[in-house]
Specification:
The protein is of the alpha/beta class and 229 residues long. The longest helix has 29 residues. The protein is built from five helices and seven strands, in the order H-E-E-E-H-E-H-E-H-E-E-H. Among the domains are: 28 residues; 132 residues, Glutaredoxin (3-Layer(aba) Sandwich), CATH 3.40.30.
Length: 229
């Protein structure tokens, strides 16, 4: 019998159980800390007001594109908005493979996310390029918008001063005082500790969490690719 429960797996040694109990203690503490950090995040005071009601380009029900204002991204009855800035500059290069991997997963989760909050993906590339890429990836649940004609990415740190794209996550809240910024995944901007990647989106990314459960871990030099054929 272990320290925390009465389960013993076939063939496990006493050394394994002792080490697993120690790990389980750490996991219990980590789960508690995750909840504490989430509560601290929810308790942040209101951020600044939305800089401007940006105009994005979005696909309409037909082949034509339409202009969508930032304020229109809030779906009826939902006051929280999650915006992911997709690293896709719109030049001749492909988008970021890591962003693509993350969005592959979020495409499947999007219906569940949008059941409670509003959710949108913004890319600097022209809308036709965004939609072509989405079709090739099978993204059928993501709300994709082009920020080609506005400064949203730069204003909310999804873009460097020289136009390089950054994978930013921003949360906004609709209130009686207007649309307010609530959160940004600022881990990406903080100095990276030795042996650490920015890891600002790991909690959303099933890929890394799956690897972290294995003896091999996530490794030090493996990153997602567009395909593995």
């Amino acid at each position: 019998m272990g320290e925390h429960h009465d389960k013993r797996f076939p063939g496990e040694s006493d050394d394994y159980r002792a080490a697993r109990d120690s790990l389980l203690t750490a996991e219990l503490n980590l789960r508690r800390q995750i909840e504490e950090v989430a509560a601290q995040r929810r308790a942040l005071p209101p951020g600044g007001p939305l800089k401007e009601d940006y105009a994005f380009t979005e696909a309409s029900g037909s082949d034509a594109a339409k202009q969508t204002r930032f304020s229109e991204l809030f779906e009826n009855g939902k006051d929280s908005l999650f915006v992911y800035s997709f690293m896709f500059a719109g030049n001749d290069e492909n988008p970021c493979p890591a962003c693509t991997s993350l969005l592959d997963g979020l495409n499947g989760s999007a219906p569940h996310i949008r059941a409670r909050i509003s959710f949108a993906v913004v890319g600097k590339a022209p809308l036709p390029r965004l939609l072509d890429w989405a079709e090739g990836r099978g993204w059928n649940n993501l709300r994709l918008l082009s920020s080609e004609g506005n400064s949203y990415n730069a204003d909310y740190f999804g873009e460097t001063p020289d136009g390089g794209q950054i994978p930013a996550i921003n949360i906004f809240r609709k209130t009686s005082d207007g649309i307010l910024h609530a959160y940004n995944s600022e881990l990406l901007y903080a100095p990276w500790e030795e042996g650490q990647h920015g890891r600002h989106a790991d909690m959303l990314w099933p890929l890394w969490n799956a690897f972290d459960l294995t003896p091999d871990g996530r490794g030090t030099d493996w990153f997602p690719r567009f395909s593995y054929n």
